[in-house]
Target: dTDP-glucose 4,6-dehydratase
Amino acid sequence: MAELLVTGGAGFIGANFVHYWRKHHPQDSVTVLDSLTYAGNPANLDGLDQVDLVVGDICDTELVTRLLTERTISTVVHFAAESHVDRSITGPDAFVTTNIIGTHSLLKAAKKVWLDSGSGQPHRFHHVSTDEVYGSLGPHDPAFSETTPYAPNSPYSASKAGSDHLVRAYHHTYGLETTTSNCSNNYGPFQFPEKLIPLFLLNCLHGRALPIYGDGMNVRDWLHVEDHCFGIEKIILNGRIGETYNVGGGQELPNLTVIEQICATVDAAFVSDPSLAARFPDAPAAQGKTSDTLKTFVTDRQGHDRRYAIDETKIRGELGYAPRRTFAEGFAETLAWYLGHEGWWRAILDRNAKAA
Model:
């Protein structure tokens, strides 16, 4: 039996990981540490047993130290981060605070409890990062590998790069047993509706514009969040200490292709389930139109990276990881989840509307 501390575990990827871990490792207990900012939602953890939500800030080193000590935590899985690129452009301070100072706070606590106390306790500090730390690729450049030089282009990716370097330094300097994963673009259940896929999915249902940056040909590697959790599990259980592993979905697609897939899948859902027209009367699909009529091209985002792609040779070869879904399959599952959890996302939209 292991005791895990999952930071940011009430957020999108963190909550999916907690659900995944409890399903596949029911003997383990999980403590979630989350400050419940706008993207953290206690409802994401509904229905889980042996999961304790502690509302707190990862920058509170004393709190983290106490949790690690009192709960005999042996594994930290660190998801907590500010992660929305647009928000980092308009307000970078929060990204530096959470992503760099917060990660350092966790590392200091882990070092104090696991190393300085002299307990010799086996431990693992797993840090979840992003492929955006590597910068942008040209159309014919090789995909990002674990040896690709860092070249972050946004305040968000720069702050994540800083946190990656801190984790590496705590392993090489102090001997902290760490691993890091750099993932591609995630999608799936519980994703806050400011990100492309849930935003566009819900806009299709409500007949709202689908704003496409620039020419829509920015390329991303899309990774279903459960496949990501499977990769993290592989790293935690069998990854080499001090190593970094890239986790990708093997689905390198232009944004425009992704948006067209969203539109087509939503339209097909209305055909197969006529009751959706009554639930979402403003959707083009409820009015005999196609969702792609909502596409609207807007001015490109500042510093918008053109292409990301993941070379996952290392994690495939060493740990036997492989994504289990194509994008079409993963998005069909995602759409079904959002249609089946209308109360979850309506509560978020209502809260945002009141805040505005």
Remarks:
- The radius of gyration is 20 Å.
- The chain has a mean pLDDT of 95.
